[in-house]
Structures are given as C-alpha cells and as structure tokens.
Amino acid sequence: MSNMVFDVDICVIGAGSAGLSVAAGSAQLGASTVLVERGRMGGDCLNTGCVPSKALLAAGKAARRRRDAAPFGVTYAPPGVDFPAVQRHVQEVIAAIAPNDSVERFEGLGVRVVKGSARFTGPREVAVGGTRIRARRFVVATGSSAAVPPVPGLDQVPFLTNETLFENPELPRHLLVIGGGPIGIEMAQAHRALGAEVTVLEAARILPKDDPELVALLRQRLETDGIAIREGARLARVELGVDGELAAVLDTEHGEERVAGSHLLVAAGRRPNLVGLGLEAAGIAHGPRGITVDARLRTSNRRVFAIGDVAGGPQFTHVAGYHAGIVIRNALFLLPARVDYRAMPWVTYTEPELAQVGLTEAAARTAHVEDVVVLRWPFQENDRAQAERETFGLVKAVTTRSGRILGASILGAGAGELIQVWVLAIGQGLNIKALAGMIAPYPTLGEASKRAAGSFFTPKLFGERTRRLVHRLARLG
C-alpha cells in the first residue's frame, strides 16, 4: 500500500482494547475508519496481559482445588504440574479469543486495517510507511509497556516482564518478583500455586491503591500460601552468580542482604507507548505519564483524542472500553461527553479476589472528615461461603451519615462479580437503603453485600427509641 492516500472520518492508531472498540463502533455507525497497528491485533490485553494472566491464574486455581479438597471429604494424590502444558493452555485461551480481534473480523465490519508504525507528519495527517492517512479525527490508542526500573545490574541479567512471562517454558524454582502491584501479586500467587517458591520485593507496600484493611487480610493469605513478601525493600542491585543463579541485593539497616532465585519478573509499573508517534509534528502535548487530555479525552490538538493507557489515566481494559464510548460520542455525535471515574471499579484476581469501587475508607475520611459511616460484613457470616468453605473475606462499604454510598471494597471469593452491585449503586446515585432493601436469593455470596448495607440501619432499628415505639404500639393491641 505504498504511496497511497486515505481520506477518512476516523483514524485509530493502536489495535488494543481501546482502539478496537473505537474502530468497531465508528465503522458500524457508518464512519469511514482506518485502524493502524504495528504489532499483534488485540494488543497487550489479549496477548500479554489480562487474558494470559487470568488463564495462568486459572491453572494455579485448578492445582489449589485438588490440594484443598480434603475438608469436603474428597482426596486426591498431590497434583502434578506439567508447566509446558500449562503454557499451552494459556496460548490456547489466547487463540480462542483472537478471532474477535482479528484483521479479518474488522475488515468484515468495514474497517481498513493498515499494518505498520504510524507517525504524525502534521496536525491532520499520519504516515505509515509510504501510506498517508488524512482524517477528520484521530484517536491515539497505543497503550503501554512494562516499565523497567533503573536498578543497577538489571541490564546485565535475564529477566521476565508480562510481555515474555507467558512464553517461559519452565516452572521457576524460585521466582523473584520486583513490584507488589496487581500484576506482581497475581503472578506471584499463580506461580506459587503451581509449585514455585516466590519472593515479592516491593519498595513501599503491596497494592497501595486498595483499602489497607483488606490488603492486610490478603497479605495474610498470601504469606500462608508460602509467598515471601518484603515490603519497604530497598533494591541496591541485581546480579548473576557464578552458578548462573540470580540474586536481588537489598540494602537493609543491618547491611546488604542477598535474595537468590532462579527467575526474575519485573512488574514495576507501566510506561505509555509514545516513541515514534511524531506527536510534536501534530502539536500534541505529552509527558512521562502519557498524552495530556482533557475530560473529553481531547489532546492539545482538538482533532486528536487519546484513550486507554496512553492517556495517563487508570490502566484497565474496562477503562479503555469506557474511553472508547466517550470518544465516539464526542467525535461522531459531537456530544460533550466527559469521563467520570467515580464509579470505576478495579479487581486484583488473586484467590481470594480483591475488588474496589469509589473511595476507600481513608480517602472518604479525607474528603468528608467525620461524615463517614463504615459498614462491614465478614464472609464467615454468609451461609453460602460456609457451604463452599470460602469464609476468608470481608465486604466493606463507606457511606455518608445520610446513606449516600461513597465506595466499597470486597475481599473474598468472586469479589469481582460481587462488586458490580456497588458499581451500579454508586453510578446511579442510589442510597444505601436500596441495597439493604433488595431481595437477594438464598444462599448466595451476594447476600453479604445486602447484609453489609443493612447494617447501616442496625443501630437505629434495634435502638432504644425503636424499642419504646414497639412497646407503645403493642399496648394499643
């Protein structure tokens, strides 16, 4: 397609979750659409992120279920782990989903797919090799990549990131994980469940964006599983021993400490993919966190939008899809749609899962001073959790004294599913009485959310004033 010129309504750069959603939506709405992708269709989520990581976690869960079946009266021989077969499972899951993101599907929707690296040559044009694309609106959706911290010696040793982890053919004997965010913690638990020793090295505290009370409970479970977690770890350097063994050297108050392992996973955050885009030629402002956007996801060049990880906001696939809807409304329908993250959830897919929407207790107290009510309901008080032996966990919600829901945190089995009723409640501005009054089927884990919501009314319902009222009404016959 050299020396070709396309004049279209929408040009999308990047075929990850965000870009694919915009391209599919705009083409089906009748807009002429070009999609540019230099790598694999589906981007990070399909190929090296959400999909393979959850597939690996599922393999670890399968092994755990066999080990933990004895309380149900079911026993198995110790599970054997064929790690190359585990990795084949991961690749089969990717392959099963890939047709949804394929060139063929999108061309069938009417999208023209151009393979190659896009570079802005001006405010209204990009070049892909010898092909030039002029568009009424551009959408930059190039995503992010694993960040590599400036640790001395890291460039001298072999290490894994999420981009190479799922091609590793052997189960690590001892996996060292640099970074205690969601990726690091999920992959630590997955590998531990499959039989590896695991040590997590985190400079601050693990999962810093989540509620500390629930993170502390999760940390307890992870350590019970045998994962060594070193928070506040000061990493002096990484080195390779004469025997080929890796080592992370920590700077402690008692001097240097050497933590040896067979494999090293770097999960220390993400960086936006900006290199080679020629943003300056298009007048698009950007910085270390990504492309600068306003609440409508417009860049400093009003013809160009940026969405997903590259826009510097929350780095989740569901946020990328949400961004796509905002851009379609702005670019095609000329509606002033704006992002609103107040009801934006996230989940760490450990076992048990950890889910959050809205404000944590600490953030709520900062924002509302004393006007905060904290509600809790433990999983051990839920009958379905008892039947399933999934009693480790807690539903925690924060509201105002008037019952306005500010946020919810859930640690427990299926937390990613259970959080959704709280997402709806916050998004629709429901009062806590709506959740307290809903009819939940019995026995379900979802009852825990209803019971947590109902506890908002317990002090008043069973208080002395109510007792006096019932007594007076009883005297009326």
From TrEMBL:
Requisite cofactors: FAD
Family in the record: Belongs to the class-I pyridine nucleotide-disulfide oxidoreductase family.
Cross-referenced InterPro entries: FAD/NAD-bd_sf, FAD/NAD-binding_dom, FAD/NAD-linked_Rdtase_dimer_sf, Pyr_nuc-diS_OxRdtase, Pyr_nucl-diS_OxRdtase_dimer, Pyr_OxRdtase_I_AS
Keywords carried by this UniProt record: Disulfide bond, FAD, Flavoprotein, NADP, Oxidoreductase, Redox-active center
Start and end residues of each Pyridine nucleotide-disulphide oxidoreductase dimerisation domain: 344-452
PROSITE patterns: PYRIDINE_REDOX_1
Keyword DNA repair: no
Protein's name in the database: Dihydrolipoamide dehydrogenase
Leader peptide range in chain numbering: none
Domain annotation FAD/NAD(P)-binding: ranges: 9-323
